[in-house]
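--- STAGE predict ---
source: upstream dedup step, 1 unique chain passed
mode: sequence only
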Amino acid sequence: MSEATKSETVSDAVVEQAVEQTTQKVAEAADNAQQAAEAAKEVAVHAAEVTKTTLEHGTNDALQFLGIPIDIATLTQMAIDMSGKLVLALLIFFVGKWIGKRIVNIAKRLMARSRMDNTAANFLGNLLYGIMLVAVILAALNKLGVNTNSFVAILGAAGVAIGVSLKDQLSNLAAGVLIVIFRPFSRGDVVEVGGKTGTVLDITLVNTRIRTANNHEIIIPNGDIMTSSSTNFSSLPTRRVDIAVGISYDADIHTAREVLVQRASLHPKVLTEPAPSVIVTALGESSVDLLLRVWANNEDWFEVQCDLLEASKYALDEAGIGIPYPNRTVQIEGLEKLAQLLDHKDDHISNTKPSDV
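--- STAGE serialize ---
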């Protein structure tokens, strides 16, 4: 078994053990919370009974003397019920909050184990914790007897209003989460997005920043990235360099191919595998179009392209192979008649006497 397999097995065992321990702790905490709630309820009942006895013997007569129609027994029972609900609500809140933190920590471990980006892991973890905290608060309020249906309706209406007003921002946010989860590109990659080519500087949940070759920083919304095609030039370790060259029809194609391949093979950053090659791509109007294809590492691609463009020109010149350029013949109709008119004018001027001027 390889070291990577052993490490992954150990990691799985550690995560499973952590999940099992957390589950046991949650169950123990729930049992302890239930026992504490029952004990607190018993104490509250006992205290209420003592208070009830005292009030019934002393305070009831005083209240009747003052003319206040208050039933001490009813108030005592209400206090007992409210005390029990309050204790249970507090237990639900604190125990639920503790369980929520444990679940979020387990979720973050699993996301980190799946090599998810830290930004996405923290965002999803905080989002999960917020949702669980709202659910715990609503459960605690419901235990107190508060009607939570109105709160749910208010939260739903607020969510709809926020979603409509921040539609574009939420779209960019959702696209940012998808980018950091699926990772079509990472920081430092050379990409082409929306017709812009550059190096990725930073990926946030709202936008992506890239730097162009002339040191311009471009900020692209993540929504535009997910709705258009993008090219990642750094996803693979090597990249092909294409050099287009045209030779005259009088030149020998085999000789030109040998010259170009030989000159490309001399470049130290051109890879030997795959080997350089030259193919004929088109028979143009004034030239035979050749394509020199070589492979280089990603970081050397631009340098190799510039060097081979210059080297190919010198190599063809040394071999006596010309690179044709377009020639144009301009034909003007009536040029002969214009020349005759000019000659006739010159003869007329030469025959004119000075006295006639």
